C-alpha cells in the first residue's frame, strides 16, 4: 500500500509544533508495519538539507495564476528517517529558510499543492491513499476530484488530519485564479464565511478526516473558529485517533540528549540525577517539587495564566515548590515570567526560547509537567512526560482528557483540572505538593506511567485500519 503524507512540517527537517513530530514519526511506524509510506514537504534551506544528500527525481513547469513556475522534486537518498522524504523546490518561492510568516505564504502553499499533484499525475503514479495534514494541504482533495487536469487521480482516497482546527488558511476570492482549471459548479466546496477556506474545503471533499484525539473530534463541533456547524454536519466522516510518540527518540534508556539514563527499575535514581543537573543549572532546590512548563507562551496554551498562578503557588508554598519555564511567545507573558524570576529567584527560573536538548533533560528531571491549555487537540508534551516518569498536571480538554487519568480515579497517574483559570491551576499545584510528599505513591505513579503504551505502533495501526476501509478490497 503506497501512502503519501503531505505536510508543511516534518521533524527533524522543519518543526514549529506537534504537526512536525507526527509527520516525522507516523510514516516510519507505518513502514515498519508493512506499508510503503512517504512524506512530501516544501523545500527548506535549513541544516538538514545542508547535511544530507538529495537527488532530483522530477522536474516540471506549472502555472500559479498567470505565473509560470519551474519546480523540482528532490529526494533524500538514504531514507535515513525510516521513510522516503521528498521536498518540492520552487526557486524564489519554495526554497526559503523559515516555514511560515512570509507575505506570500498563501502563494507558497498553493504552489506546493499544485506541484505535488502535477508530479504524481505527470509521472504516472497512482498512490493508494493521499494523506493530507492541516490546512496547508487542504485544497488537494478538492483539486483531485474537481479539476479536469487531475481526472486520473479522482478515484484515489484522501484522508485529511486536523492537527489544530483553529487555523483555516482562509483567503479571498481574488486568488481563485491561482487554482488550476476547476469545475465551476463545484466552487461552493471552496467557500466558507465568504472566502476560500482550505480547511473547510478539505473536510467537505476528503473521504475521511481525522482528529488527533477522540475528544477533540467532539470539541470541533463546539469550538473550531467558525466551522462548528460544518463539523456537526460532517461528523460521520470523522475519526479520532490519539497521536503517538516515537519511542526510539523518546527513550529514557538511550536518549542521547540526556546524560543520566534510567528505566522503570531505576526511575527514582535516574530522575534524581537529572533533576540535580537542572537545579544546578537554574539555581533551584533539588529537595522541592519541580513543576515545569514547556511550550509556546500563548493564550491557546494557557500561558497567560502562569504568572498569577505561579506567584500564588509560591506564596502558598514558599518552602515547597519550584517552577521552570521553557518557551517563547507573547512578549507580555515573557516579561511577566522574567519578573517572577527576579522576585522569586529561589523558586522560579525561565528560559526564553526553545532548546530541544534542554527539553529532553527537563522531561527527564522534572517532577510535574503543567499544561493549562485552553485548546489542545492532542498534546504530545504530556505523552513525553509520561514516558519519562514526569506526572502531568493538565486541563481537561482535547487529547489531554483522552490521555491523562486523574490520580483519584481507578488506574490514575496524573492531575486534571476543569477550568483554564489561575484558581484551578493553584489548587492543582497544592495537590502536586501534597503528592510529592508521599514518596511511595510518587514511585508507584512513575513506574505506572512508564509502563503505558503511547507509541506510534498502536496509533499507526489505527490509521492502517482506516486506509483499508477506504481501499476497495479484491
UniProtKB/TrEMBL annotation:
It catalyses: [(1->4)-alpha-D-glucosyl](n) + ADP-alpha-D-glucose = [(1->4)-alpha-D-glucosyl](n+1) + ADP + H(+). CDD domains: GT5_Glycogen_synthase_DULL1-like. GO terms for molecular function: alpha-1,4-glucan glucosyltransferase (ADP-glucose donor) activity; alpha-1,4-glucan glucosyltransferase (UDP-glucose donor) activity. The keyword Nucleotide-binding does not apply. ADP-alpha-D-glucose binds at residue 15. It comes from the Bacteria. Keywords: Glycogen biosynthesis, Glycosyltransferase, Transferase. InterPro entries: Glyco_trans_1, GS/SS, Starch_synth_cat_dom. Residues 2-228 form the Starch synthase catalytic domain. The keyword Glycosyltransferase applies. It is an enzyme of class 2 (transferase). Synthesizes alpha-1,4-glucan chains using ADP-glucose. Belongs to the glycosyltransferase 1 family. Bacterial/plant glycogen synthase subfamily. HAMAP family: Glycogen_synth. This is Glycogen synthase. It comes from Mucilaginibacter terrenus. The gene is glgA.
Amino acid at each position: 500500500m503506497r501512502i503519501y503524507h503531505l505536510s508543511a512540517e516534518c521533524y527533524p527537517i522543519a518543526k514549529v509544533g506537534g504537526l512536525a513530530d507526527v509527520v516525522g514519526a507516523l510514516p516510519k511506524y507505518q513502514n515498519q508495519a508493512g506499508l510503503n509510506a512517504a512524506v512530501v514537504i516544501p523545500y527548506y534551506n535549513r541544516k538538514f538539507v545542508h547535511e544530507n544528500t538529495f537527488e532530483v527525481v522530477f522536474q516540471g513547469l506549472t502555472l500559479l495564476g498567470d505565473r509560470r513556475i519551474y519546480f523540482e522534486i528532490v529526494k533524500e537518498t538514504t531514507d535515513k528517517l525510516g521513510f522516503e522524504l521528498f521536498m518540492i523546490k520552487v526557486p524564489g518561492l519554495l526554497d526559503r529558510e523559515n516555514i511560515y510568516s512570509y507575505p506570500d505564504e498563501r502563494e507558497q502553499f498553493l504552489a506546493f499543492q499544485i506541484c505535488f499533484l502535477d508530479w504524481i499525475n505527470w509521472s504516472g503514479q497512482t498512490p493508494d491513499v493521499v494523506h493530507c495534514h492541516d490546512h496547508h494541504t487542504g485544497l488537494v482533495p478538492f483539486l483531485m476530484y474537481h479539476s479536469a487536469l487531475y481526472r486520473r487521480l479522482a478515484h484515489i482516497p484522501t484522508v485529511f488530519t486536523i492537527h489544530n482546527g483553529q487555523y483555516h488558511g482562509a483567503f479571498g476570492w481574488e486568488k481563485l485564479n491561482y487554482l488550476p482549471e476547476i469545475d465551476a459548479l463545484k466552487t461552493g466546496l471552496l467557500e466558507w464565511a465568504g472566502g476560500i477556506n482550505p480547511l473547510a474545503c478539505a473536510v467537505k471533499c476528503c473521504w475521511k478526516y481525522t482528529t488527533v484525539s477522540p475528544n477533540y473530534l467532539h470539541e470541533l463541533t463546539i469550538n473550531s473558529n467558525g466551522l462548528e456547524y460544518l463539523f456537526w454536519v460532517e461528523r460521520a466522516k470523522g475519526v479520532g485517533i490519539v497521536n503517538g510518540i516515537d519511542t526510539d527518540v523518546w527513550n529514557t534508556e538511550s536518549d542521547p540528549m540526556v546524560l543520566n539514563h534510567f528505566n522503570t527499575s531505576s526511575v527514582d535514581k535516574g530522575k534524581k540525577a537529572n533533576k540535580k543537573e537542572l537545579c544546578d543549572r537554574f539555581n533551584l532546590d533539588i529537595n522541592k517539587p519541580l513543576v515545569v512548563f514547556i511550550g509556546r507562551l500563548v493564550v491557546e496554551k494557557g500561558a497567560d495564566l502562569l504568572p498569577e498562578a505561579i506567584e500564588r503557588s509560591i506564596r502558598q508554598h514558599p518552602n515547597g515548590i519550584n517552577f521552570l519555564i521553557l518557551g517563547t511567545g507573547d512578549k507580555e507573558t515573557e516579561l511577566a515570567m522574567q519578573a517572577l524570576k527576579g522576585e522569586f529567584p529561589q523558586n522560579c527560573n525561565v528560559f526564553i526560547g526553545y532548546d530541544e536538548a534542554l527539553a529532553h533533560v527537563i522531561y527527564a528531571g522534572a517532577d510535574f509537567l503543567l499544561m493549562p491549555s485552553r485548546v489542545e487537540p492532542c498534546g504530545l508534551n504530556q505523552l513525553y512526560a509520561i514516558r519519562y516518569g514526569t506526572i502531568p498536571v493538565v486541563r481537561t480538554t482535547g487529547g489531554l482528557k483522552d490521555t491523562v487519568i486523574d490520580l483519584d480515579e481507578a488506574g490514575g497517574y496524573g492531575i486534571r483540572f476543569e477550568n483554564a483559570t489561575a484558581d484551578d491551576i493553584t489548587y492543582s499545584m497544592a495537590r502536586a505538593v501534597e503528592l510529592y510528599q508521599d514518596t511511595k505513591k510518587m514511585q508507584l505513579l512513575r513506574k505506572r506511567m512508564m509502563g503505558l503504551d503511547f507509541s506510534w505502533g498502536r496509533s499507526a495501526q489505527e490509521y492502517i485500519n482506516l486506509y483499508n476501509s477506504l481501499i476497495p478490497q479484491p
